[in-house]
Every structure is written in C-alpha cells, then in structure tokens.
Amino acid sequence: MFKGYLATVFCASACVFLLSACVPVSKKLVVVSPEQGQLIRDASIFQVEVEIDEAMFDPNSLQAELNGVFVPLSGKDGSYVSSLAKAQSLNTSNQLIVTANRLADGVQSLHSVEFSWAPLPEGTEFSDEFAKNPPPIETAELEMLQSFGKRQNALLHVTFKEGFDAPANIPYRADAQSVFILSDSGEGDDSIANDGHYTARVDFDYENYRNRKTREVFTASIDTANPGELTFSGRELKAKKVPTLGPTLVSLAAPTTIALAPPVAAAPVVDSERALMIRDLSVIADPSRTFDPCDTDADGLMGNPNGAWSFKTLMANMANTLATGVPLDLFVQQWLMGWAQNFDPLHEGSASGDWIINDDVVPQREAGLIASIINPWPKTSAGTLDMDKAPFRLLAIVNRVDLRDAVGYGSSTSTAGELRFVFGLLDMNSCTPDRMTAIFEYTVHANTCTEVLNYAQEWEDLDLLHPPFPATPGYLAHLQSITDPVTNAGAAPLEPNGSSIGQLRTSEVVMSFPWEMREFTLQPIPFGTPIQNVLRMDTTKQTPDREFTVNAALQPILENFINSNLGDICDSKHTVPDTFSGMPFMAGRADFFPDSHFWAPGIASFPSGGCTDDDIRFNFSVNTCSGCHGGDAIDPGFDPPFYHVDPTSPGTSPVRLSRFLTGTGTSPIPDPSPIGGIDRDFADLDRRAVDLQDLLATGCVGLAVASPMLTTH
Q: What is the pLDDT of residue 96?
C-alpha cells in the first residue's frame, strides 16, 4: 500500500467533505485538564493542567481561578499544573478561568472551562472479574447528544446476553478521573428500572471516530488491493462487501446513533506487515538487533547476539541474573530440561523418567533433545552452551493487542494484550531451518483504558509515520521503543524474576514424534531461593487432554463440560479448567492425532445465543492448541502441518504464514469433525487490523463493550 498517495487523496477529499478535518490547530493558550463538560469523579486527585506558547504569552502573567478562588500554577517550558489546596473543594458545577498576557501587545487572553463533579453513587463497586471476563454484550449502541464536544456528549445503550445476572449499576473507569456507570436503575439517563436495558452518559470523541471511519472507506474504495469491508464472528470471516462511499460519508456527517456491538463491517487499513505480524527481513534480520548464526538470509552478516531482539538477550532479560542470581546458561539449561528425563516425582517427574503435568504423562524426549539441540549447539571453552551462538533465528515480531483485557471494569492491573517474538530452530549440523518454533509471549501490563489506547496508537503510528519497507532506522528505533519497555529485565517488578513474560510455547517435531506443543512459565527453580525462577513446563491452556476426545469412554466427560458451558463457548469466553468432574482435564502438552480437533457425540446447540452444535464444537476446538494448529484452522492442501508461522521457510524471504492468517480466499478450510459442519473462512491478520482500528476509533467506550479475544493462538 502506497501510504503517502492514499493519505494525500484522503486528506484532500476529506477536507472537502469534513471542512476542517485536515486544518492544523495552533495551540496558544490551552487548558488540557479539566476539559469542557467533563464529569470529575475523584476530587482527591483533581489537577489543573495548562499549556501555553511562551513565544506568544508571558508565563509570568499566567493565572488561574477556580470558582472565583486563585489557583497557583507551577511549571516550566509551557506546561503548568496545580492541585486543590487543603481548604478547597469542587462543587457540583465548576468554572475554571485561565488568563495570560500576549507578549506582542500586553492584551490579556482568557480561556474558560466549565465542568462538573459527582462522586460515585454509594454502593457502586468495580469488578476485577469483569476485567478478565467482561459482561457478555448482546447489543451496544451510542446515541449522540452532540457531535462537536468530547465530554458527556453521548448515551451508551447496552443489553446483555441471556443468563447474565447483571447488577443495577456497573462502573467503568476510562481514566483516573473519568468513570461512567451503566445503569438499569430507572434514574438519571436510564428511563425504566430493571428492564434489561442499561444506559450510561459517556465521553465520545466523535471527530476522531468520523475521521478514522472516513479514512477507512476512502482507502477501501481507492485501493484495489484492499479486501473491502469484512464482517467477523469471533475469528471466523463471515462476509466481504465493497464499501459504499457515498452513503457511508453521509451517515458520518450527522449521526444519531452508532452501532458498537455486534461490530459492523470494516475495511482493514492498518498494514499487518508493519504493525501486526512483522516479518520483513529488514526487521527480523536487522544486524544490530537480531542474531542468526547461520546467516540464513545470505546477507553476509550474522548480526548481534546481544541485540535487543536476539534469543540470547530475551532469555537473559527473563533470567534477570543481577536480581535473581540465576546465570543465563543455567536458566536456558533448565528450560531445555523440559524434554529430558525426569525421575524426580517431587518435581513433576516419574519412575519412568516421563514428566507428569496435571496428571498427564508428557513423554521425555531426551534422545531427540541431545541429538537435535544439545550436541549441535556450539559450546564455550568451558563446555557450556555458547549463548553467543544460540541456534535460533527470529522469524516474526507480533502485536497481539486483540488479546487485551477489558481494562476499566476492574481496579486491578490488567493487560493491553501480548507482545510476541517467534523464533525458529536452526539445525547447526547443516545450518538449515528445522521444524521447531519457540514463541516468547509477553504480557503488556496496563492499568487504565488510556494506557491501552496509547499502546495501540504506538503500533498504528509505526505503520503510518514511516516510509515503506525496507525498514528505515527510524522505523527500527520506533519499534524497539515499543518492545523494550515490555521485554527489558525488571519490566514487571511484581512478577517472577521481574519479567513480563507470560509464557514461552514451543511447537516441534524434531525431537520425536508425534508433533507436540509445550508451554513453559516462570516457576521456582527446584532447591533454589524464593526469588529464583526458571522456565518449567506448565499445562497447555485451553486444551483438554486428547484422551477426552479420542477415547470413547472419556468422551462423555468432554460432552458434559461443553454442554455445561454452552453460553460461554458460543461467545468464545469459556475457560478450560485444570480439573473437571473430579478428573484432571487440561493437558500437559498438545500433540497431533488424526485430524487434530476436539469433538464428542451429543454436543448440544445453543439457539438463544445464535450457535448451532457445529458452532459450539468449532468454537471449543479452534481455541485449543491442537485444533488451532490442526484440523480446525490449518489447510492440509496448502499449509505445512501444525504451523501458522513456518520455521522451515527459506531464510532469504519472509517466513511463510498459514492461510488462516493471510486469508482463505475462495477455498475455505473444511470442517474435520464427524458432525459434517460447514467449511469456514478466515483472515486473521485482517481481523486483527480491524480490531486495532475499531479500538482506536471508539476508544474507552468501545473497549468497554467489545469483549477481548479468548484464544491465545
């Protein structure tokens, strides 16, 4: 996509239609906070923020009055702040007046802001549970009260799905000061109590929404490579259509309502190659930030083993030796021990040497580990693994902001999704790519909706603000400024080793058959100190033991679990537990079996939620590791088995992706189950692009009503 050309066409066209959309605004004397019309919820942290152009105004003349009382401002370089004095308090209605004298003529300029204050209603409580498992939204619609303001300018109308026991008031924190309350109390903006229709007066930046949606429709109309407007249900692509330029622009001119859920069709504008699944060689083989001991891209450079995105650096940051005392080589050896023999039953071992994870026997693969990884790995003079020559090359850097929490419902720390680094194993005997990936999956911690939006904006800016690939130094530095705060040692002080790593997952068939995925998390090192954690095998989330689908005697257990959770599975919000019906349920690893999908006879449909028995089976199975990397999402006629990011791809070109990611086109992926269900279409990178765009267009209001994705795949 030639972004410069599209931006020029869009801006010229949009300015004609939207008049001022592309006119720059000069900030001379600006009250940053509070904003006009804002509803303040917490007076204890109230703060006045003012910005002035000191080339135009005398900073010594800057003054502020709040409700007729002088407010002292302090600061420098054009930014000034003030807090309430001990004797001051906010009224229900407030007026802030800020003045400063112009340097040119001494004339006083004045800026006035009116805002209100109201504490949270008594008994209103935030729900930490809702942050991870938000209320299931059936419909959500914005009623615009005015389109030119940003505060208290719209009513959010919401209904929840059947069976959800909703409290009368549900608070949502947009930022430290702003809280809106979804209410079915029959008071204020809510007209009828207990009718199941919730209402909240909210802040909505319509100008931002209008400009973004206009850009989408213009881009989709003039870019022949754009797939058009897409409709998704969960991860499945349901429909494509050519955008209707005229009617869409008219609807954006003076809207009365804006539909938020179910989501409307949208055109993917964000370039997934630059902001979602980055695999261009100019990035993943950047010689200053990555390392490839085999120079598989044949550019004559192996790179920097201490680069920010190298296997060694990311492992070293996880070990955090300065804080934990765990040496890097020991940290990596402990991870590799996850395939070695383990005869210690106190630490998940067994008399046979196999691993026991949640009562699931995970076979040791020591012979394959030694032959495929340990022996070929270059050694130091001391005989240890040489981390400067680690046999893993970077394949992709992945933005998974779509896995974010519904930040705002709860008061505890939540996430803005995940940041991932996908590495491929190199066969050091032949210096060729081998069939193993190691995916470093980091949690991006966030406390407020604003933090989530700022993080998402960085990724969009990465796409929009830089020239096309090959990556410029500016693009690479920008990307590293996004990744470093997440991956650096000590990035998450409250987590094990101070690391923000959520899990490290492997997918391999080089050590033994069958193909297998394992999941590793930071856990206490055996016989170590409480602050020393290493990567040890954990359950493979969302994936039951395969015996519950391949063993007829155990299928009723799986059937019972699915039928007991139809609503959540229909919404893709279910959680596979460690145990069910008194039995260990979640797998210690995910592996290949015929057609690799989960199914049990007797799965019920869920008509009230819009799901057939086939939808239920699919939603459950595709969210397992075996299903997502097997029959539910891998095209056997095109894709290499089990991989969405193919580690055997030649190093001289970007790594090959599955059609699940890039789009199935006219040939959907067949249903693998005995149900004989429908074939399904996907275009997951387009889905992630649309998700990012919608998040930035609708802001905190959209984040509150759009449930985050369940899957970790």
A: 97
